[in-house]
Amino acid sequence: MKKILMQICLAVVLVTGLIISAQAQMKTQYRAHVPFDFKVGGQAFQAGVYVLGLTNPSTNNRTLTIREMNSGNAKIILIIPKENNERLDVSKLVFNRYHDRYYLSAMVTPTLGAEFRKTKNEVMIAEKQKSKSETMAIKLNK
User: Fold this and answer.
1) Which sequence spans correspond to the domains of the chain?
2) How do beta strands 113-115 and 80-81 pair?
3) What global pTM score does this model have?
4) How far apart are CA 74 and CA 50, in angstroms?
5) Which of 11, 111, 122, 124 gives a 20 to 30 Å CA spacing to 41?
C-alpha cells in the first residue's frame, strides 16, 4: 500500500512540474525596440519599445498581443502559425520595407513561428516596388 501511495504522489508531483513548465514556456513574452513606425494587420504602430506575446497561450486561439511599453496601449493581431524546424537561439521580428514604409511580416522564436497576413495595401505596394523591397530583422529579448 505504501508503495502504491508513493507512486501516486510521485506521479502527481511529476505532472504538476510538467504543467508548470509548459505554462511558463507558453506565457513567454518578448521585448523589442523598433526604431521606425510600422504596420501589421491593418494597424499602425509608432516607433518604440514593444512587448509581444500570445494573447491566450492556453487555447488554440492564434492571436498576438503587441503592447507599447511607454503608453501601455495594446493591440491584438491575428497570426498564421508556422512550424519552425530549425533550432533557434535568437528570436526576431521580420519586417518588409518598401521605401520608408515598414510592415511586420513574421515573428520567429524558439517556441513560436508566426506570419502576419499582408493587407491589400501592402500587396499593392509590394507589387509596385518589387525590386525595391527589403527584408530586415530586429532581435527580440525575453
Assistant:
1) 28-140
2) antiparallel
3) 0.73
4) 9
5) 111
